[in-house]
From TrEMBL:
Keywords: Membrane, Transmembrane, Transmembrane helix. The chain crosses the membrane at residues 5-25, 37-63, 75-96. It holds the Pfam family DUF2834. InterPro entries: DUF2834 (IPR021362). This is Membrane protein. It comes from the Bacteria.
Length: 113
């Protein structure tokens, strides 16, 4: 699964940034225009609100799982959430989390023996 998560993290960086670069090439770094377009109509507002709620849920999930498995890389994922987006942060966190879960499973199986 780690390879799958890593692949999705790469895809989750490349595809969204493709569209961001197109916007920046056409409009420059016009944050006001970006926000205006993000909330330009009810369907774009729907996707924006859905995205922000998903980000909030991801942050809660990430900190809960990080505490549970003592995941040190949570700050990298938080940084990627605010610089790239959920499409990178979520699969990257799952990529990191996978190795901690395997470690925990190994520790638990060794304790039983």
């Amino acid at each position: 699964m780690r390879k799958v998560y890593l692949l999705f993290a790469i895809i989750g960086t490349v595809f969204p940034y493709y569209f961001l670069v197109q916007f920046l090439n056409k409009n420059g770094f016009d944050l006001g225009l970006l926000v205006d377009l993000l909330f330009a109509n009810s369907i774009s507002t729907f996707f924006a609100v859905d995205f922000f709620i998903s980000c909030f849920v991801f942050i809660i999930f990430m900190f809960n799982e990080s505490r549970k498995y003592n995941i040190k890389e949570k700050w990298i994922c938080l940084l990627t959430l605010f610089t790239v987006g959920l499409s990178l942060a979520l699969p990257l966190f799952l990529f990191f989390r996978e190795s901690y879960i395997k470690k925990e499973v190994l520790l638990n199986s060794n304790e039983r023996m």
